[in-house]
Write a structure and sequence with these properties.
The protein is an all-alpha fold. The protein is elongated, with a radius of gyration of 21 Å. It has a domain of about 30 residues. Helix 1 runs antiparallel to helix 2. The chain has 2 helices and no strands.
Length: about 70
């Protein structure tokens, strides 16, 4: 070894991660309200529709798992 630091992406230090936590939390809440709930409702609706059609029941069960 020649003493040079390894190449590639280095992990940020602990204080740098703490500075982004409030922003990450706010963005996660915005995503949950604007997209997450609608995606869950859409998968639940698709699951009901697929369970009505007998041949697509396995896909309906998979949709319910994604909605949960």
């Amino acid at each position: 070894m020649d003493g040079t630091p390894p190449r590639g992406r280095s992990e940020p230090s602990w204080p740098a991660q703490c500075k982004t936590d409030p922003v990450r939390t706010i963005l996660n809440l915005i995503w949950l309200v604007l997209s997450g709930l609608w995606l869950a409702l859409a998968y639940a609706f698709a699951g009901v529709l697929m369970c009505v059609l007998i041949i697509t029941i396995p896909f309906g069960v998979a949709s319910f798992r994604l909605a949960a």
